[in-house]
Design goal:
- By secondary structure, this protein is mainly α.
- The chain has one domain.
- Helix 1 runs antiparallel to helix 2.
- The chain is elongated, with a radius of gyration of 19 Å.
- It starts with a helix and ends with a helix.
- The model has no long low-confidence stretch (mean pLDDT 91).
């Protein structure tokens, strides 16, 4: 019983990491590129760093939303099937 719950918790962390990773990486890469651009041109405008990151995150969300949804739906189905085993 406890081992099942631990496996479930580990799987939850893995799914969370896999779903959030593309969005976080897009923000990181775009932020790094904008920072390099700002350092080379000496432009220190806050909106210049904020707007491209937001657009990149929205773009990645739009592109990966079907994959994320399928992954969450599959995990939810597994959780629902495990409810009787955990309770009983």
């Amino acid at each position: 019983m406890e081992s099942q719950l631990m496996k479930l918790a580990i799987e939850t962390y893995k799914i969370t990491l896999m779903i959030s990773l593309p969005v976080l990486l897009a923000g990181l890469v775009v932020g790094l590129l904008v920072s390099i651009f700002q350092a080379t041109t000496q432009i220190n405008e806050m909106t210049l760093s904020f707007v491209p990151k937001i657009l990149a995150v929205i773009g990645v969300l739009i592109l990966t939303m079907p994959w994320m949804t399928n992954m969450l739906l599959d995990y939810t189905k597994i959780l629902i099937k495990l409810i009787p085993k955990i309770i009983g």
